[in-house]
Design brief:
Order of helices and strands: EEEHEEHHHHHHHHH
Oligomer: single chain
CATH architecture of the largest domain: Orthogonal Bundle
Shape: flat
Distance between the termini: 44 Å
Largest sheet: 5 strands, mixed, barrel
Number of domains: 3
Number of helices: 10
Number of strands: 5
Structural class: alpha+beta
CATH class of the largest domain: Mainly Alpha
CATH superfamily of the largest domain: 5' to 3' exonuclease, C-terminal subdomain
Length: 189
């Protein structure tokens, strides 16, 4: 069972990367946030979930162990496989955790591959297990009101998510347009 990989990115695709670890290249599925932050020829390492079925062997990579553990909890829920779990992890964790805590099944149903029954099952099984950490609690309102594309765009420019949220928590309420928000961020950095 593969638990960790370190290597160079040979190729990026829509859902993952080909990771060279010397003489062997592995295809590793990763979230869109990790994918946006990586470049070909970059040295990188992942905690790995090696998913084995009788007809398939796939690798899912996570930059921190907490995300790997959350992924394992998700695939333990009836009706959620690795691909749907990755779609869930493509949602900012604070938004997903808030949806679970607030039993917002309508938000959860927006995730590809999740219907009403599965959304209710996620809430039922995870409500007591999910907590919002200090950073997410401080910046939760920013996450709730922020267009994900803005955070993605700023992360592509090389800024860290916690830094983006810390700066945008003081965003004037009158600023609604994406361009204004990005301009505000860049001006205050």
């Amino acid at each position: 069972m593969i638990a960790h990989l370190k290597g160079t990115i040979l190729k990026k695709t829509e859902k993952g990367i080909v990771l060279s670890t010397g003489d062997i290249g592995y295809f590793v599925f990763i979230t869109k946030y990790i994918l946006a932050e990586t470049k070909e020829e970059q040295l990188i390492e992942f905690f790995i979930h090696h998913h084995i079925r009788e007809d398939l062997s796939t690798l899912y990579g996570f930059s921190d162990y907490e995300d790997l553990e959350f992924f394992k909890i998700l695939i333990g829920i009836s009706g959620i496989g690795p691909k749907v779990a990755m779609e869930i992890l493509n949602i900012p964790s604070a938004k997903m955790k808030n949806a679970i805590i607030n039993e917002d099944t309508a938000f959860i149903c927006k995730i590809p591959g999740i219907g009403q029954k599965t959304a209710k099952r996620i809430v039922l099984e995870l409500k007591g297990k999910v907590t919002v950490d200090v950073l997410e609690r401080e910046h939760g309102a920013v996450y709730q009101n922020m267009n994900e594309d803005i955070i993605d765009a700023l992360m592509k420019l090389g800024f860290q998510k916690h830094h983006i949220l810390k700066t945008l928590k003081d965003l004037p309420e009158t600023m609604k347009e994406d361009e204004e928000i990005i301009g505000y961020f860049l001006k205050h950095n």
